[in-house]
Every structure is written in C-alpha cells, then in structure tokens.
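Weekly structure sync, notes
Attendees: PL, DS, HV (note-taker this week)

Item 1: Kynurenine 3-monooxygenase
DS walked through the input record. Source organism listed as Lysobacter yananisis. Sequence as pasted into the shared doc:
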Amino acid sequence: MNTSANATPHITLIGAGLAGALLATLLARAGWRVDVYEKRGDPRLKGYQGGRSINLALAERGRHALRLAGADEAVMAQAVMMRGRMVHFLDGRTDLQRYGRDDSEVIWSVHRGELNLILLQIAQDAGANLHFHRGLSGVDFDARIARFRDDRDGSEHEVGFDSLVGADGAGSALRAAMGEVADLGERTEFLGHSYKELEIPPARDGGFSIEPNALHIWPRGRYMCIALPNDERTFTVTLFLPNQGDPSFETIRDGADARALFQRDFADALPLIPELERDFERNPAGLLATLYLERWHLDDRAVLLGDAAHAMVPFHGQGMNCAFEDCVALAERLLAGGDRGDAFAAFQRQRLPSARAIQAMALENYLEMRDRVDDDDYLLQRALERELAQRHPERFMPRYAMVTFHRMPYEVAFDRGQRQRELLVELTRGHDSLDSLDWDAVDATVRARLDPLPADA
Ligand code: FAD
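Item 1 (cont.): predicted structure, written out as tokens:
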C-alpha cells in the first residue's frame, strides 16, 4: 500500500478483461504501479476461456483508445473490415447498406479472445502486475483490504489497496461489495430477448463462404440473426429471439426446432451452418440487459467502469468501445493528479450522461436492425440522410456516423440524432422518392434547423 503524496502512485484493478487490460496499460505507461486481479487463468497459457460473444465490432472510439495504448497496430492486424450491413431478405435477395461514405468509414470485426491476449501482453510489457486466478470475493473498505479467492484450490488471499477500479464486467463483484456499504441506485432492465451463437465454417476452398467485408443481418420483425466475420474465415452467427411467444427460446428448444425455424425464416443461412443442431444445443443462451447505476464511485476508495458501471444491450456494437473510452477518460483524470476522490467524481460526471445516451441508442438500434432495415419509409429516410450529409456536411451527419466514426460525446450524438430524425420524417412525409422533393426548400430547412456540428472531442 502506498499513500504518501510524492511516492509512485499505486492502483488496484479488478478484472483483466478488455477494459481492465487497457486501463492497466495506460496507467503503467505513465509510470504508475498497477496491480490487476483476474478471476480466470492466464489465457496466454491455456487459451481464451471467455464465455461470451466470440467477435466484436470495433469502431473509432475504441481504436482511438487502442492507439493511445500502443495496441492499435497489433489489433488491426487480425481485424476484418465491415463496410456495411448486408441485409438478407426473406425471399433470398440481399442488399449491402454502406455504413459510411467510403472505406474510411467502416467498422472492424475483432476476435474477443485475440484482442484480450494482445491487451494483456501490452499491459504486462508496460509494467503492470497481472495476478490470475484471483476472483474478488469481498472488500473491507474501512481497512482498505480486498479479499480474493483462488478458483483452483479455494484459498483466500488478502491484499491492501489505495483505490480499487472495478473493470470486472456486468456481474461485477466490486459493485456488489460497494452496494453493501452505499446505495448505488442500481437497476437492471432485462430486454426480454436472449441470444445464442452458431458458426459458419470456411467454404470448401478454404475461403469465406459469404461476403467477408460486411455485417450480415437477417431481419425478421420480432427477431433476427446477424453474422460477423472472423480472420480464420469463419463467421459467428448470433440468433436473437424473444424469451417468450412464438418463436422464442421457449418454443425453439432443441436442434430440430432450430432447423425448422431456419428452414422457414433464414433459409439462405441454413446450408452455411452445418453444425446447427450441435451449436444450438451446446451453446448457452445469453441474457440481454441494461444496467443503470446512479453512483459509480465510493469517495477515493473505489470506482467502476465499462460493463461494471453501465452494461448495455449489444445492438450498437459499442459496449467495448464505450468501455475503452471510459478507460481514457479515467486515466486522464487520474494522471492530472490531485485528489483521487475528486478525479473519480469528475469521471462519473463526464461519463454517466454518455453511458446513458449510448445505452438508449443501443436499445433503439435493436428495433431498427430487426424491423426497419427492410422497410420502405426507412430506406427513403436513409437515402435523404445520405443526400443531406453530402449537401451539408458541416450540419448534417447520420447518427450512426456520429457514434461510430467520430468521438463527440454520445449524448451530443443522441440529441442531434433526434433532431435530425424529426427533420427526415418531416421532409419525406407524402413522398415515395427523393425526386419529388423541393431541394431549395429542403436546404433552407436544414440551415434553419441545424446549427453547425461540434468538433470531435
Ligand atoms: P468484460 O469484458 O466482461 O471483462 C470483465 C473481466 O473481469 C473478465 O476478464 C472477467 O473474468 C473478470 N472478472 C469477473 N468477475 C471477477 C472477479 N470477481 N474478480 C476478478 N475478475 C473478475 N461491444 C462492442 O463494442 N462491439 C460489439 O460488437 C459488441 N458485441 C457484443 C455482443 C454480445 C453478444 C455481447 C454480450 C456483448 C457485446 N459487446 C460489444 C459488449 C462488450 O462485450 C462489453 O461491453 C465489454 O466486454 C466490456 O468490457 P469490460 O472489460 O467492462 O468487461
């Protein structure tokens, strides 16, 4: 334990997942003494044992943080570019809806396990001390002692700390310990839908069996499938279904039910997933929920970030990106010096509104992905959106672009997105193509209603 003002600052991180490893790197590189305690074993020795989504969409916010940590190059070496959404209609037609203007505005599919390995290695190289098989089991905040349990032999270990950072994910043990001594205003809202992962193997010739540079979507109203490419030429398919109703995880119970569902609703995907029954029966269904927390820190003794503070549903592909942005924000506050409690409070003031905004946008995106990407009104609004972004680049930017390709605070993107959406609905009302629009009137409306965009953070 180290509390003297001019000694090297010390911090204790809980969780060596995505956020924990990145924050450890940022602080260790700045000369801090960093100890990271992780419940699982070292994935560099035994292979990645993660329980959740196999691949993730990485966007600009996440890449910016990776650049600051010196990890971007290594991560990008195994990333697969996704230019847009490839929508698979029920009749088998497909349509690529680009995310941005060109290949400078794309997202990247990265393998969670490989990403974690890279980040752990970079954290260790930066000087962070990584302790594996150390699951936080309790905290005495008055004595500043944390207790860890070794899952191999059940032994308990006590460690003194100055401050704890909870990067231990949605089921955070640190959050539970903080909740025992303070009211964190915690509330979890379950979506009522869950997910299951399936795999598309490489084609017979060893290449990708469908277009690799896209995020594939099979929107079907109340439910959907998506598929993201992996660098070993497979795709991870995620089936999202309601928990109740028909179809749901209540009615689709085994591999045979899953095959019948795919035959009816995802017919072009079915031949691509040869082990559908095995994958469906072997892989667990993951719950989806949003975690709202009013209070992220306990004076200077503990603070939460990433999923531990604000888990969200995965439909904007931003949970990790947001967690990485948290790491940069917290590192900046800590490295500025001064009182740690003040730094934690300032971090919460900055990031809580941002987290709330991206949580709301992630929920909205579920409806958009499963129900709107093949709807005529939506497609016309998207066409106008693209046109306005070209005619007024200083005033109009699609919300997806603000969230994905830029780093303005999420709440700014949320607010502008709402105003822009109202405009799109208004301008396309009564039209079924852009040809009948009065462009002088459209341009004047945009200038009158939207002030110039703020510069990126
Ligand atoms: P985690 O990655 O969960 O890491 C927590 C770490 O803490 C783990 O290593 C865990 O073992 C460890 N730990 C847990 N308990 C303890 C304990 N008691 N003591 C010590 N260590 C502990 N985000 C995106 O940006 N893009 C996407 O495309 C995307 N897709 C997703 C798809 C799905 C299906 C899901 C479920 C999520 C997706 N996300 C996505 C969200 C993303 O996975 C999370 O936001 C991200 O993993 C959060 O990182 P974290 O470090 O906060 O938590």
